[in-house]
Amino acid sequence: MTVLWITGPRAVGKSTVGWEVFTRLFAHTRAAYVDLAQITFAAPPLDVAAKGRRLDAVRRVYREAGAQHLVVTGEFENAPPEAKVCSLFAGRDDLVARLLLRGAGKGPPIPGDELRGLPEEDLRRLAVPTVVLDADLVVDTGGRAVGEIADEIVEWFFPDLGA
Known about the structure:
The protein is α/β, with parallel strands linked by helices.
């Protein structure tokens, strides 16, 4: 099973873009999607090893169900070595705007969203543009439509699908 790992800083659009990539793949092949934040949401927070075990279990189930591709969104520290990695990037101003929306509860409805209700000062402090330097592809999400970003990722990683 091919694992496409989409990573990046908070509020860069990992989940939104990842889901869109999954829908494009699913239209052509057996694909699956998992948001690491959703399968590792726990109190107290899980350590890296526990997150990895949960992801391994999900991968096993999807593989047994016949998935050929798995799109994973989440922190890069949990990526398996065979994963193809796409690092999403956005400038500080874009991240601040997205974080403020999520903090106000106006962003995507994410169960367990730890950003909802945080003070503006804390949200601004979380806006840290980062890039995974050894990623296979780096994509700037600033000022771009989700569909355009997803198309770029699918064309790069899955050029034979004709998506």
